[in-house]
Amino acid sequence: MSCERWNEAILGRLYDETEPDQDRALESHLEGCAACRASVSELRRLRAVLRENEPEVPRAPRVVVLRDAARFRPALLAASLAGAALLAGAGAGAGYAVGRQAAPETAAPTTVAAAPASLDPATEALVRKEVESRWAALTAALPPKEAEPTSPAVSQDDLQAAFAKFEGKLYRNRADELDYLLGQIEASEVRTGARIGQTNQALRYVALASNPNVSER
Amino acid sequence: MGEAAVSVPSDEDLLVAVRGGRVDSLGLLVARWEGPLYRFVSRLVDRPEDARDVCQETFLRVLKNSDAFRDGARFSTWMYQIALNLCRDRARRQKRWSHLVVATPQQDDGRPREYAAPERADTHPERALEREEARSAVQRALGLLPRDQREVLLLKEYEGLKFREIAEVLGIPESTVKSRMYAALDAMKGSLQAAGMS
User: Fold this and answer.
1) For position B159, which CATH number holds?
2) CB atoms within 10 A of CB A75
C-alpha cells in the first residue's frame, strides 16, 4: 500500500496533469519508497488494461433535431405554387387561343340550316328542294350586291380594332383572375405553413410524452 | 485564443448560435457529441433505452436552457453535467443506488454472444474469446464500483476530462475527485485481480 498523501501526485503523473513542484517532490519520494513505486507501475498497467478492454457500447442512436416551427420558411412552397399558377395561366391562354382560332370558322357567313333530324326522307327532300329554289330566287334577285367585294358597314380594320379591344378586355379579366388566384395561393400557403408548424410542435410533444421519464418543467 | 483563425466553430460558438435561435447549430452540436455522450451515459444507466432517453433529454435541455450557459464555461462540461444529473434522477427514481446490473457476456443458454467491434476483431477464435472475457471482466468491475467512483472513473478514463473539469461537472472539489478516482482505480484493480486479470 502506497503512502496515502502521495495519491494525488501519483494520479497527476498517471494522467499527465501534474504541477512541476508536485512532480519533483513525488520523484524524490519515489526514490525512497518501494511501495509507491510499485503502486505507480501497477496503476500504469491497470490503465493499459482498462484502455485495451474498454467495454463495448452499442451504436449511439441518431438524435434528430426538429426544426423550430417559427423558423418555417414558406418561400419554397410559394415559388412552387406560383409556378403552378403560371402554368395554369398558360393553359388558360392556350385554351383561349384555340377558341380564337375556332371562332372564325363557326362565324362563317354562309350558313345553310340543316333540316331537323326528325323529318322523314320524303319531306326532307321536299323542304330541301323548296329552300334551294327560294335561295336560287333570292340570289338571282340580288346580282348587284354580289358584285360588291366587301360589306361597307363593317370594314376589316373595324373588325380588327374591335377584336383587339375585346382581347384587351379579356386580358384584363384574366389578370384580375390571376391576381385573385395568387392571393388564394398565398393565403393557403400561410395556412399550410402554420399547420406544418403546429404539426412539428405536436410531434415534439409526442416525443416528450412518449417518454415516461421526461418531465417538462 | 490561438485557434481563432480556424473556421470550424467551437462548441461554445454553436451554443451561442443556438441561444440566438439558430436551431440548426444544435444539430451540429448533437452530431459532435451524441457518440461520446451516449457512450458515457450508457455506462451509467443499466438499460440501452434509458441511455437513449437521457441523451435525448440532455440535448432538449441544452436547447431549452441555452440561456443558462455561462460565458467562458466549456460546453462539454455543461453537457456532461446535465446528463449526469439526469442519470442520477433516473437512478433515484428506480431506487438502484448501490450497484449496476451488468449484462453478462454469456447468454442464458450459455452460447457466447456475437462479438462487437469487428474493426479490431482477432482472427484467432481463442484470442477473440480472451478479449471478450477481458472486456466483460472490466465491465463487471465497473458495475461493482460505487456510483460516485464510477462517475469519476468514466469521465476520466474513457471521456478524457481533466480533473478540474470533472470537479466542475460534479460540483465537488478537485481533491475529492482525485480521492474518488484513486479509490476507483484501487477497487478496479482488486476486482480484475479477483477475476484472474493481473
Assistant:
1) 1.10.10.10
2) 8
Which site among B26, B104, B132, B138 would you substitute to test the A interface, given the most A Cβ atoms closer than 10 Å to its Cβ? B138
Beta bridge partners of B112: B106
Q: Could you tell me if B64 and B16 lie in one domain? A: yes
Print pLDDT tens along chain A (217 aa): 558 889 999 999 999 998 888 889 999 999 999 999 999 999 999 999 999 998 887 776 665 555 544 444 444 444 544 555 555 555 544 444 444 444 444 443 444 444 445 667 888 888 888 889 988 888 888 766 555 555 567 788 888 888 888 888 888 888 888 888 888 888 888 888 888 888 888 887 777 777 766 655 4
Interface predicted TM-score (ipTM) of this complex, two decimals:
0.76
| Contact flag B137-A207 (C-beta cutoff 8 Å) | no
Q: Which domain holds residue B146?
A: 98-198
Q: Which residue of B142, B152, B159, B182 to mutate against A (max A Cβ within 10 Å)? A: B182
Question: What number of other Cβ atoms are within 10 A of residue A211's Cβ?
Answer: 15
3-class state of residue B112 by DSSP: strand
